[in-house]
Specification:
Order of helices and strands: EEEEEHEHEHEHEHEHEHHEHH
Number of domains: 1
Structural class: alpha/beta
Bound molecules: NADP nicotinamide-adenine-dinucleotide phosphate
CATH architecture: Alpha-Beta Barrel
CATH superfamily: NADP-dependent oxidoreductase domain
Helix content: 25-40%
Oligomer: single chain
CATH topology: TIM Barrel
Length: about 280
């Protein structure tokens, strides 16, 4: 699997990760009905080298984290990179630390990257950031970051920290949602941060896109693979598509390890810019 070196992590991570929203349930609601299938899909992804796994305490009310914990067992822990997130209603300093401890318990292992899921409401951002910092101090997490943050908020979050820095930003980014293309992404690159692109397939919509399928045919690739590959050209970007079956996992893994030609990349870029306009 292709990897990307992220200066702030001082290490490489898989160029494509595994999302887990919907795996193990929905919004604070666990679902155990497909556990075997979900764990199998995650394990298969890990085997194929999709070793960055994105989860959150909110997903399935913690059940997604339990399934990630099951899936990573048997893999070399150093080769897996687990991202989890604290929900914004747990944004007070002590709540963040408590949430991190609970996530670690459910995962059965430490968190590599711990994020505040959305900007906190009713709590000073600095208080939340100090909670994340404390989670690192206590060994629950190795790195911290923010999710759903614009540039100004990222800078504000960084200004709160004294011992660790924001190592990653996780925002929505896809061919159909280019808000961060000229702002947060170049910033992440300049600062050596990881940028996790969520909903990179627009919930599967881009996998059914005819234009992408026609460009992909030249490379023996599918529309989904082209949509993900387009994102890989941005240096700090690691897309985290969610797939709950082996077929989708394998297809997404095939989005890395090759590149669209400069000409095709630009053609796709312009075509979708027009869709947006
Ligand atoms: N930080 C945040 O606030 C935030 C918000 C949203 C998402 N996320 C993270 O980002 C991850 C990805 O985003 P997402 O789940 O919203 O959307 P997504 O990855 O764009 O799309 C997931 C959907 O696409 C389908 N799919 C996956 N691979 C496919 C393929 N090769 N061909 C056709 N369909 C395919 C999946 O189907 P199957 O399940 O049937 O395989 C699923 O229905 C989430 O799981 C979560 O970890 C974070």
């Amino acid at each position: 699997m292709e990897k990307k070196f992220i200066p702030k992590l001082g290490a490489e991570v898989a160029a494509i990760g595994l999302g887990t929203w919907g795996i193990g349930g929905g919004f604070w609601t666990p679902d155990h009905s497909r556990d075997e299938e979900w764990v199998d899909a995650l394990r298969y992804g890990l085997q194929l080298g999709l070793t960055l796994v994105d989860t959150a305490e909110m997903y399935g009310g913690g059940h997604a984290e339990e399934l990630v914990g099951m899936a990573v067992k048997g893999f070399n822990r150093d080769e897996v990179f687990i991202v989890s997130k604290v929900w914004q209603t747990h944004a007070a300093r002590d709540e963040v630390v408590k949430a991190a401890e609970a996530s670690v318990r459910r995962l059965g292992t430490y968190i590599d990257l711990y994020l505040i899921h959305w900007p906190p409401e009713g709590v000073e951002l600095c208080e939340t950031m100090r909670g994340l910092e404390e989670a690192v101090k206590r060994g629950y997490a190795r790195f911290i970051g923010v999710s759903n943050f614009g540039l100004q908020l990222v800078e504000e979050a960084r200004s709160c920290l004294s011992q660790v820095d924001v190592a990653a930003i996780e925002n929505k980014f896809s061919l159909l949602d280019r808000r961060d293309e000229g702002s947060v992404i170049p910033y992440a690159e300049r600062e050596g941060m990881l940028y996790l692109a969520y909903t990179p397939l627009e919930k599967g919509q881009l996998a059914r896109e005819q234009f992408l399928a026609s460009v992909g045919a030249k490379y023996g690739k599918t529309a989904a693979q082209v949509a993900l590959n387009w994102l890989l050209r941005f240096k700090p970007v690691v897309p985290i598509p969610k797939a709950s079956n082996r077929r989708h996992v394998e297809e997404n893994a095939g989005a890395a390890g090759w590149r669209l030609s400069e000409e095709d990349w630009r053609l796709i870029s312009e075509k979708f810019r027009k869709v947006l306009a």
